[in-house]
């Protein structure tokens, strides 16, 4: 006799399962929402242009923020995106500050157990080495939305564990 086939659980489902206890003050009946803050910075030249690497990351970060908003809304968590610019003079002092992402104040590399690196860039950056991120042996010049979503979900789990909780089910009373 065969038993039921067990399917692996993806990270979004894991978040929902891990969070049966809903944070107090959530969207279900409270006044306060937790927030996952995503901050992304990149080089902008004097004409407001950036390189292809950063332009692609911008699209991916925006896509990830939209996905996270949908995934986390029911848990009472909002997602905010802040974009900041590095001017050419700042960039020339430390090129690896461009194309950086922080989630709730931590670099994305920290959330993903990743390593920051560098590779030759192009156009607006000139002949500079710019930031890369290596996760699981794969190096990314533009940060894919899946990595931002994964790190955002990890930050959301941390928020939920730090919040006061109320049980999802009322305590059982005496039988009637």
Describe this structure as you would to a colleague.
This protein is an alpha+beta fold and 176 residues long. It has one domain. It has helices spanning 11-18, 52-72, 88-93, 108-112, 145-162, and strands at residues 22-23, 34-43, 77-86, 100-103, 106-107, 115-120, 129-135, 138-140, 165-166. A hairpin with an 8-residue loop joins strand 6 (115-120) and strand 7. Helix 1 (11-18) runs parallel beside helix 5 (145-162) and helix 2 packs across helix 5.
Low-pLDDT ranges: 3-9, 12-31
Q: What would the average pLDDT be, to the nearest integer?
A: 81
> What is the global morphology?
elongated
Q: Helical percent range?
A: 25-40%
Which class of secondary structure composition applies to the elements? alpha+beta
Main sheet: strands, sense, barrel: 4 strands, mixed
Strand content: 25-35%
Number of domains: 1
State the strand order across the main sheet. 3-2-4-5
The counted number of beta strands is 9
Number of helices: 5
Q: Alpha-carbon distance between the termini? A: 40 Å
Order of helices and strands: HEEHEHEEHEEEHE
Q: Rg from C-alpha positions?
A: 20 Å
Summarize the structure.
By secondary structure, the chain is of the alpha+beta class. The chain is 33% helix and 26% strand.
Sequence-ordered SSE layout with sheet pairings:
Elements: H1 11-18, E1 22-23, E2 34-43, H2 52-72, E3 77-86, H3 88-93, E4 100-103, E5 106-107, H4 108-112, E6 115-120, E7 129-135, E8 138-140, H5 145-162, E9 165-166
Parallel strand pairs: 2-3
Antiparallel strand pairs: 1-9, 2-4, 4-5, 6-7, 7-8
Helix pairs in contact: 1-5, 2-5
């Amino acid at each position: 006799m065969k038993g039921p086939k067990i399917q692996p659980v993806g990270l979004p489902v894991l978040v929902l399962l891990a969070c049966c206890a809903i944070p107090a003050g959530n969207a279900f009946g409270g006044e306060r929402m937790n927030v996952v803050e995503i901050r992304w910075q990149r080089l902008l030249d004097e004409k407001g242009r950036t390189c292809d690497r950063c332009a692609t990351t911008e699209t991916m970060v925006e896509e990830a923020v939209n996905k996270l908003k949908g995934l986390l809304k029911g848990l009472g968590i909002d997602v905010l995106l802040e974009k900041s610019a590095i001017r050419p003079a700042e960039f020339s002092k430390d090129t690896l500050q461009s194309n950086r992402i922080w989630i709730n104040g931590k670099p994305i590399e920290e959330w993903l157990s990743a390593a920051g690196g560098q590779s030759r860039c192009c156009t607006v950056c000139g002949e500079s080495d710019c930031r890369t991120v290596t996760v699981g042996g794969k190096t990314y010049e533009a940060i894919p939305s899946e990595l931002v979503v994964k790190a955002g979900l990890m930050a959301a789990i941390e928020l939920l564990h730090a919040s006061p909780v109320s049980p999802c089910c009322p305590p059982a009373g005496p039988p009637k």
